[in-house]
Amino acid sequence: MSGVGSTEPHKSAGAGSAGAGVGAVRELTMSEALNEALHEEMERDPTVFVVGEDIAAMGGLFQVTSGLLDRFGPQRVIDAPISEAAQAGAGVGAALVGCRPVVELQIADFVSLVMDQVVNHAGKWRYMSGGRVTVPFVLRGAVSSGIGMAAQHSQTLEAWFVHAPGLVVIMPSTPYDAKGLLKSAIRDDNPVVFLEKRLLYSRRGPVPDTDYVVPIGVAEIKQEGSHVTFVSYAQGVHLGLQAARQLAREGIEVEVVDLRTLKPLDIQTVVASVSKTGHLVVATEAARAGSMASELVARVCDVAFDALRAAPVRVTAKDTPMPYAAPLERAVLPQVEDVVDAVNQVLGRVPVGR
Amino acid sequence: MASPTTTTSVQQLEHLLLRMWQIRWFELRAMELFEEKLIRGSVHPYIGMEAIAVGACAALREDDYITSTHRGHGHCVAKGLELKLMMAEIIGREDGYCRGRGGSMHITAMDRGMLGADAIVAGSSAIAVGAGHGLRLQGRDSVVVCFFGDGASNQGILHEACNLAAVLAAPVVYVCENNEWAISTPVTASTSVSNIADRAAGYGFPGVIVDGNDVLAMRDVAAEAVARARAGEGPTLIEAKSYRITPHSAATKTDLRPPEELDAWRARDPILRFSRYLTGEAGVEPARLEEIEEQARRDVEEAVEFAKASPRPEPEAALEDVYAPADWLTPGRLA
Ligand SMILES: Cc1ncc(C[n+]2csc(CCOP(=O)(O)OP(=O)(O)O)c2C)c(N)n1
Ligand SMILES: [Mg+2]
Questions:
Q1: Distances in Å between the alpha carbon of B80 and those of B58, B61, B77, B86?
Q2: CA-CA 20 to 30 A from B80: which of A56, A322, A345, B284?
């Protein structure tokens, strides 16, 4: 990818080792990785533009759009009024005439203000037209739970979009996946809801200095294991990996499957893992009722019930609004120990070492 | 009747009349087809409002765009969509504009600059802004006209969209079709101002009131707004005062509107008024007007025949086109 060099605001933290002969691998934060994806895609395709609040001169609350204004100008990097529905609607309109807009919601909870434009318009326009139009539109938003932002800034609402036909839903867990998936999302001809966990923005990970993409609809096994299949996405993957480290000390091997894309769902990878382990734990930071966790259990039961040796276990947030005070928020959000308990439960073990 | 401020040939005037008659006959036939149960759901006739769409679209180029509403057939005809493909869509056939997936309220025809009819009241007001901006980003000087109703004027998204259009100086023309009613709610009961055009002042762009039953007046104000939008000077809100002569929809059997009000507006029928102008000031032979109406009627009848002969979609096709082609779109993959 040419042109990402000199004006690129983020430079490697220096920890990267050389990749397999194809450019350097740097350690980037997820927000730096997402920022690179936007720089590269806007450079590659002049119809890509970004819209959102405080995204131009300020570079967004989380610096994901940093440096774009200087490089691409105000027609393609639009500081919008606080009008989320109009931003999303404008995205749909621009997509209909051949652009690839990326709309940023400062906080993902504000999806409630754009639901009509996303669900009733973006997701349906192609179908209602008999397949005669495409809506290549990306809606990004920061899921801000876990840091005391309270009930109106802490929801994890991917299930709303998974339920709505016509949308692609992505939630990355690593900087590598975030960059590669955002590039795929922008290039895809379908409307994509791309939810980013705010606590992961500052988390570092290896990102190669090449024009790679991560394919939509392909899960990744983040850690192999033979006893239990743990399926999650975004922050849930990190809960799973931590729980797996603890359980490994007790000789329990957890296979951690990162869905990365929630719709389309890579059910094959999940089923292949469950067929191997016979045990399923699914996790989401969303509230429990009608969640992606529930959907996953149902999907596995649909196609691989015989492979299950115990009832699958869901680890989710509680069905409450998100409370503010730290002990309360902790009580509502799923924790590493909840995953550990769930694994012990699915294996029929008595929890040990809590 | 406003006299045309632009030089207009007799053919152009006759064409406007033809379009208005096509809408009128299209809607009359659609209402019949609804009663015959060939049309499902509902159909919202544009009868009495023909001058608005025909006048506004007369100010547009082929490469300009429109967005439309639940009451969208008139906009489609005025923008030059094929009656046959429209009618086939409305009765749910494979040859329809949307292969029977959309129906009356969702006709889309990108090749004719029709971004799509939208059954969410005011739903496409921001789509118009983005389309306008997106066209400009691609170096095109096309303009987008967004039609909406008096009822729609009280939707939040319209406020957001007008403001966004203004700050972006987007090439958009808002046409409010004030037909005085939103189903059973009179505009006086629902709306804080007596002229919806006044609200444009709050967005810092011009608001113009026009007699929406005068096709030439409508065309002239639209032409000015379109020129302004094309020149990069930003949006205009045109409030076209009009009335729907027929019920809210073919499925809506109660009509709370006073009969005297209906009679008064029937006397101001936009087609009759324009016909009088044509045979008077414009010197067109009355026989020629009859020919035009007859041609419109024939066009609509051919459309009905075409639509009825078109195949119904196969049930398996219901699963097609949820998504645009993509690498990940392999069978059995979707949740
Ligand atoms: C968001 C939304 N609310 C309500 C409706 C139901 N509805 C359909 S048409 C209509 C009235 C619209 O009135 P107006 O905007 O004046 O348009 P008109 O029907 O008079 O052309 C209503 C309430 C809808 N389709 N969408
Ligand atoms: Mg009305």
A1: 10, 11, 5, 11
A2: B284
DSSP state of B200: G
Reading across the β-sheet that carries B114-117, which strands appear in turn? B114-117, B65-68, B144-149, B172-178, B236-241, B207-211
Cis peptide before A74 (omega within 30 of 0): no
Please report whether residue A105 resides in a domain: yes
Instruction: Please name every residue paired with B181 in a beta bridge, in sequence order, or none if there are none.
Output: B186
Last residue of one domain, picked from the residues A208, A237, A263: A208
Q: Write down the pLDDT at residue A1.
A: 32
Q: Which residues pair with A231 in a beta bridge?
A: A257, A282
A237 near A271, Cβ under 8 Å? no
Domain membership of residue A58 (yes or no) is yes
Residues A39, A178 within the same domain: yes
- Asked if A85 reaches chain B (Cβ–Cβ under 8 Å), the answer is yes
Distance A87 CA to ligand 1 centre (A): 22
pLDDT at B332: 60
Helix (H) or strand (E) holding B237: strand B236-241
Q: What is the per-residue pLDDT for A17?
A: 38
pLDDT digits (tens, 9 = 90+) for B103-132: 999 999 999 999 999 999 999 999 999 999
Six token digits for residue B120:
């969410």
CB contact under 8 A, B130 and A93: yes
Closest listed residue to residue B225, CA positions, set B2, B64, B78, B112:
B64
Write the CA distances from B319 to A159, A276, B314, integer angstroms: 21, 32, 10
d(CA A227, CA A353): 19
> Which residues constitute the domain of residue A329?
220-343
Whether the predicted pLDDT of B95 surpasses 90: yes
What CA–CA distance (Å, rounded) separates B175 from A154?
40
* Spatial contact of A179 and A205, defined as CB atoms under 8 Å apart: no
pLDDT at A23: 77
Asked if A81 lies within 8 A of B108 by C-beta distance, the reply is: no
DSSP, collapsed to helix, strand or coil, labels residue A340 as: helix
Paired sense of beta strands A138-143 and A228-232, if any = unpaired
Q: How far is CA B44 from the centre of its chain?
A: 11
Mean pLDDT of B133-149: 98
Whether residue A96 sits in one domain with residue A244:
no
For helices A30-44 and A175-187, what crossing angle results, to 10°?
30
Q: Are residues A277 and A184 in the same domain?
A: no
For A74, which DSSP code?
A: T
CATH code given to domain B10-311:
3.40.50.970
pLDDT at B3: 63
- Give the relative orientation of helices B215-230 and B270-279 as an angle to the nearest 10 degrees: 100
Q: Name the token pair of B296.
A: 């419109």
User: Which pLDDT score, from 0 to 100, does residue A167 have?
Assistant: 98
Give me the amino acid identity at B26: F
> Would you put residue A241 in left (φ > 0), alpha (ψ -120 to 50) or beta?
alpha
Give the domain-ending residue among A173, A208, A243: A208
CB B120 to CB A116 under 8 A?
yes
Q: Are residues A135 and A86 in the same domain?
A: yes
Q: Is residue A214 part of a domain?
A: no
Which one of A87, A103, A132, A231 makes the best mutation probe of the B interface by having the most chain B beta carbons within 10 Å? A132
